[in-house]
Amino acid sequence: MYPTGALIVNLRPNTFSPSRHLTVCIKPFRDSSGANIYLEKTGELRLLVQDGASEAGRVQCFGLQQGGLFVEATPQQDISRRTTGFQYELMSRHSSPDLHALSAPCRPCSDTEVLLAVCTSDFVVRGSIQDVDHVPEQQESIIRLKVNRLHRQKSRVFQPAPEGSGPWQGRVTTLLECGVRPGPGDFLFTGHVHFGEAQLGCAPRFSDFQRMYRDAKEQGLNPCEISTE
User: Fold this and answer.
1) What is the three-class DSSP state of 109?
2) Cβ contacts of residue 124 below 8 Å, gap of 6+?
3) Which of 26, 163, 224, 227 has the most C-beta neighbours closer than 10 Å?
4) Do 176 and 136 meet the contact criterion of CB atoms below 8 Å apart?
5) For every residue of 168-227, which 3-state class applies, written as one string?
6) What is the pLDDT of residues 37-91, one digit of tens each?
């Protein structure tokens, strides 16, 4: 008989932090199957990941105070082995705006948001878009970048070209609904790395960033220093 039943998973940080300030994000493994995953609080369930759904690898986020995870085995017609698995991250609300949780995730960043992103992002690079692959089943777009200048990266998102010469290369992801297309021009790309993938945050044209930074510096409002050459 195929296993039945369910279990509750309560996620907690390993350091003290008020739960109202924390966001949980989960990402099911691509081959995860055999169970539905719900958000549960006081007996009420909200479906997060449906077994067999086409968007099974999509990131889902919620506030830690909203409840725990309720993982329930789904009825099966055979006894073949199925495994349900997912990754999760706990993070401060202050670092969550890039996690597809905004009400308007594709809108351009304001000047203030760009300047803060330059100081707090996992990667900051100047470059251009080489190509874009749209992946409808994952509701995301994969953007391949040519990097002219690497300002900062916390993991090896961007690496030298395989032939050892020329600009660095790398790829980032964003929501499919943002409709990103390849085109000319230099941009300042910022973002964070989640679940091993670089996710695009603010990405103004480099000339616009130069103006923002110059204006903020003249007013003494730039939150950190970065080269604008």
Assistant:
1) coil
2) 117, 118, 151, 152, 153, 188, 189, 190, 226
3) 26
4) yes
5) EEEEEEEEHHHCCCCCCCCEEEEEEEECCEEEECCCCEHHHHHHHHHHHHHCCCCCCCCC
6) 999 988 899 999 888 776 666 788 888 888 999 999 888 777 777 888 888 888 7
